[in-house]
Amino acid sequence: MCRVSFAIISILMKSLIGNIAILGSGNIGLSLAYGLVKSSYQTASSIILTRRNVSGLSEQAALGYQVSANNMEAVSSASIIILAVLPQQLNGLLNEIKPVIDAKKHTVISVISGVSCNDIKAKLGEDVQVIRAMPNTAISIGQSMTCIASENATTENVDLVKGMFETVGSVVVINEELMTSATALCACGIAFFLRAIRAASQGGVEIGFHAEDALKMAVQTAKGAADLLLIHESHPESEIDKVTSPKGCTIAGLNEMEYHGFSSSLIKGIKLSALKAGGLYTEEK
């Protein structure tokens, strides 16, 4: 019964949304497209992918996605517009699509770092509803951590976008002033945690494991650590306390890492990424 209900709701939502145009089909744009199709939230044929060099989307075309180099046509054929270009490409894109933007028809979603809702409305019109979303590349496997915020969108549209991204991971609605921080912690954070896993696997090689085995061990251990926090809804330190014992090997390793700045380096990296994310669009204006 639950599966039938979910299927009915999904069909109704698709009929309400119509086509989705993803303008700028790079890594994050394609990850979103794949995630929405993988979750059965949308069909490939209802997603329009654009790129200046459309030959780079031949694989996606073969999978059934609509592909185009014409952003104006894509916008005209969709009701949800997702801006996924680089910050330095945004002004040109907004100027290009402005003539076909209809505030009554379109909801604009931006996944571009450092670009506020007001920045976009200043180009497209103050009555256009704009919602910022900051997913990460794990969206392609339905495991994204996405933060969303809006300055003028209706509750219905915020809920619609929240529901869209919930099909491909977890969603938190935040105040817009925290979006650059979300970029650093969640979007950039994928790279930070991957680098930590890489370092752990290299440590495994140092102590005798083959590289392939060391990586598998590091990945599964990291996944297990994350699941402990999610399932137990506990704090990292409470789980750490379960592993450490007096004069033990775990506390010795932790203290050595902290002596060399493990936690402080990660914190400083996140802070610097947030600072950089906040200035990306400003630098390119």
Automatic annotation (TrEMBL):
Cellular component terms (Gene Ontology): cytoplasm
GO BP terms, alphabetized: L-proline biosynthetic process
GO molecular function, one term: pyrroline-5-carboxylate reductase activity
Spans traversing the lipid bilayer: 16-37
Chain sites annotated for binding NADP(+): 84-87
Broad class of where this protein is predominantly found: cytoplasm
Domain Pyrroline-5-carboxylate reductase catalytic N-terminal as annotated: residue spans: 20-113
Localisation: Cytoplasm
Pathway: Amino-acid biosynthesis; L-proline biosynthesis; L-proline from L-glutamate 5-semialdehyde: step 1/1
Enzyme Commission number(s): 1.5.1.2
Enzyme class of the recorded protein, top EC level: oxidoreductase
List of residues binding NADPH: 71
Taxonomy, superkingdom: Bacteria
Protein biosynthesis found in the keyword field: no
Pyrroline-5-carboxylate reductase dimerisation domain segment(s): 176-277
Catalytic activity: L-proline + NADP(+) = (S)-1-pyrroline-5-carboxylate + NADPH + 2 H(+); L-proline + NAD(+) = (S)-1-pyrroline-5-carboxylate + NADH + 2 H(+)
InterPro entries: 6-PGluconate_DH-like_C_sf, NAD(P)-bd_dom_sf, P5C_Rdtase_cat_N, P5CR_dimer, Pyrroline-COOH_reductase
Keyword terms: Amino-acid biosynthesis, Cytoplasm, Membrane, NADP, Oxidoreductase, Proline biosynthesis, Transmembrane, Transmembrane helix
Family indicated by similarity: Belongs to the pyrroline-5-carboxylate reductase family.
Cited function: Catalyzes the reduction of 1-pyrroline-5-carboxylate (PCA) to L-proline.
Protein name per Swiss-Prot or TrEMBL: Pyrroline-5-carboxylate reductase
Organism: Arcticibacter pallidicorallinus
Species classification: Bacteria, Pseudomonadati, Bacteroidota, Sphingobacteriia, Sphingobacteriales
Gene that encodes the chain: proC
